[in-house]
Design brief:
alpha+beta, GTP Cyclohydrolase I, domain 2, four-stranded antiparallel sheet, 6 strands, about 20% helix, about 40% strand, globular
Length: about 130
């Protein structure tokens, strides 16, 4: 049976829960519909997160992103909804979603939404010679 879009995000146990590390995922084929015109909007979604106890499973993420294809949504709303759904699924220490929407009517839109777990502090950057 072929895969179908789904709003269910699956997770798996973080293999290194004692370490802060960053997972970066690029999704260049995101589509949704303009809620005013019904025309398709295209975007590249860039996800960066520091997992805590669990990580997002990639196939379920693909099916989740696909589920927006026929849904009307403003860029700001859909970016924040996707971030919230991912935070709800895996409760990361930190998560940032950057949605870079392609040009429409001569305008590019980029929306950046972030989540930081209460009490979590980013480690200081390491500068090497």
């Amino acid at each position: 049976m072929p895969s179908q879009p789904s709003r269910e995000l699956e997770t798996f146990d973080n293999p290194q829960p004692d370490r802060d590390y960053t997972i970066r995922i690029e999704m260049p084929e995101f589509t949704c519909l303009c809620p005013k015109t019904g025309q398709p909007d295209f975007a590249t979604l860039n996800l960066e997160y520091v997992p805590d106890k669990s990580c997002i499973e990639l196939k379920s993420l693909k099916m989740y992103i696909w589920s927006y294809r026929n849904e009307g949504a403003f860029h700001e709303a859909v970016t924040n909804q996707i971030l919230q759904d991912m935070v709800d699924a895996c409760a990361p220490r930190f998560m940032r979603l950057t949605a870079e929407f392609y040009v429409r009517g001569g305008i590019y839109t980029t929306v950046v939404a972030e989540h930081r777990a209460e009490g979590w502090q980013a480690p200081a950057p390491v500068e090497l010679p």
